[in-house]
Design goal:
Blueprint lengths: L1 E8 L5 H4 L9 H11 L4 E6 L3 E8 L4 H12 L3 H7 L1 E4 H12 L11 H16 L4 H20 L9 H12 L7 E5 L3 H12 L4 E6 L2 H11 L2 E4 L3 H4 L5 E4 L10 H10 L5 E5 L16 E5 H69 L4 H29 L3 H10 L10
Parallel strand pairs: 5-6, 5-8, 6-7, 8-9, 9-10
Antiparallel strand pairs: 1-3, 1-4, 2-3
Length: 422
């Protein structure tokens, strides 16, 4: 049985290719079952995110080429293109890869936490589809355990490395309880979307989104139960906000010193936290001169992010040690399981010899034969039958110069040197 991980990710292919091999969530269960039969996979799970599509399988004779051919059929991507940008890993290398992915070490943003939840979802979908068996079941459980240990025992995810997350993290330093704070987000692009998500995760429930077009602001606000306003409404709303995070494409500043000063008077100088992520800047530089206003710009965040990236890279070294230990432990478990069938057959062989000789002995005793002779004969026959085949094999191995066989016998039976002297 071979473990196989095959994939295409942000390191090996551009988004134009990645989007072609992405799996739609509603079709994934049927496609998993199709892969089971069409591609010759015994067990299979598929992880499909914006940055990667990976297939985790157990195979018995099936090859990566069969999986690539199946991907070609499912997604209509030319096989040559898939061959140029895919990677394929077997057994322990595949195990280590899964551990790295789940721990965030293989992500576009080092240490990002979302990937572990996405992998758990992939496992759940495959379970529901009936394509997870004992092998992948053990692998995924060990993967989640290792990823949890990485999160618990290292600082891989503690320091923000995205602009949006860094902005919210800085807000947490200013306000002890973000759930009591009101946020005004200016803009409705991808960065503000991420900021809103992080704010909600941090417990913020009072959010207002301001944008040049109301429809765009409403579309974003609806996702988070927020309020939508136009940029022209900001002067009336500004004093209510404890934090303002702005990211627009405006060529001119949206907030000037005068507007913020008036808002601060209405707030009776309660602290106001402001982050300007825009280039050109949305908030006039002079705003930073006002008392009780904490204004940060993109350069301030970049310094924090660069330092945090260095800290995550240091943590990644510790995480890799955990992954190495976890993969070694998992492969040891697999090898132990592989021995079970052989051990079972070995025991059955010995027990069949015992039962046969015991039956013969019982018949002789019933005829009245001498008990001591019967027992001695039974013991001798059992011993001879148990060691006959190993003895023949050892003689053949010795004649062929295969010394390792003799070493294994000594280790198996714990023989001392004096026990094997001629």
């Amino acid at each position: 049985m071979t473990l196989l991980a095959l994939g295409i990710n942000h390191k090996t292919a551009p988004v134009a290719v990645r989007e072609k091999v992405a799996f739609a969530p509603d079709l994934l269960p049927s496609q998993l079952r199709d892969a089971n039969s069409a591609a010759g996979m015994q067990e299979i799970a598929i992880l499909s995110t914006c940055n990667r599509t990976e297939l985790y399988c157990t195979v018995d004779g099936a090859t990566p080429e069969q999986l690539l051919a199946w991907l070609e059929k499912v997604h209509g991507v030319p096989l040559e293109q898939l061959q140029d940008c895919h990677y394929s890993l077997n057994d322990e290398d595949a195990v280590k890869h899964l551990f790295r992915v789940a721990s965030g070490l293989d992500s576009l943003i080092l240490g990002e936490p979302q990937i572990l939840g996405q992998m758990k979802s992939a496992f759940a979908v495959a379970q529901e589809a009936g394509t997870i068996g004992p092998e992948l079941g053990r692998l995924f459980r060990q993967t989640f355990s290792v990823a949890k240990k990485v999160r618990t025992d290292t600082a891989i995810g503690e320091n923000p490395v995205s602009v949006a997350y860094a902005a919210v993290n800085m807000a947490q330093r200013i306000f002890s309880d973000l759930s009591r704070s009101r946020a005004l987000l200016i803009g409705a692009g991808e960065t503000i979307d991420l900021v809103a998500k992080h704010l909600v995760d941090a417990g913020v429930t009072d959010i207002t989104v301001a944008n040049r077009t109301l429809a765009r602001a409403e579309a974003l606000a609806e996702q988070f139960g927020a309020k939508a306003i136009l940029l022209s409404d900001i002067p009336d709303e500004l004093y209510k906000a404890d934090m303002i995070i702005s990211s627009t494409a405006s060529p001119l500043p949206i907030l000037g010193k005068g507007a913020v000063e008036r808002a601060m008077k209405k707030r009776k100088h309660a602290p106001m936290f402001m982050v300007d992520i825009a280039v050109p800047r949305d908030i006039e530089e002079e705003v930073a001169q006002l008392n009780d206003v904490y204004l940060y710009n993109l350069d301030d965040l970049k310094d924090i992010i660069e330092e945090n990236v260095r800290q995550r890279e240091d943590a990644a070294l510790d995480a890799q040690e955990i992954i190495e230990a976890g993969s070694s432990d998992f492969m040891r478990q697999l090898r132990t399981l592989d021995a079970v069938t052989t051990l079972k057959a070995f025991r059955q062989h010995a027990e069949s010899i015992r039962d046969l000789e015991l039956e013969k002995a019982m018949k002789r005793l019933q005829k009245g034969d001498d008990v001591q002779k019967v027992m001695a004969t039974m013991a001798s026959m059992i011993t001879n039958k148990l060691i006959h085949r190993p003895t023949v094999t050892m003689r053949e191995a010795s004649a062929e110069g295969r010394k390792e066989v003799m070493d294994w016998v000594q280790e198996l039976y714990q023989l001392q040197d004096e026990d094997v002297q001629p």
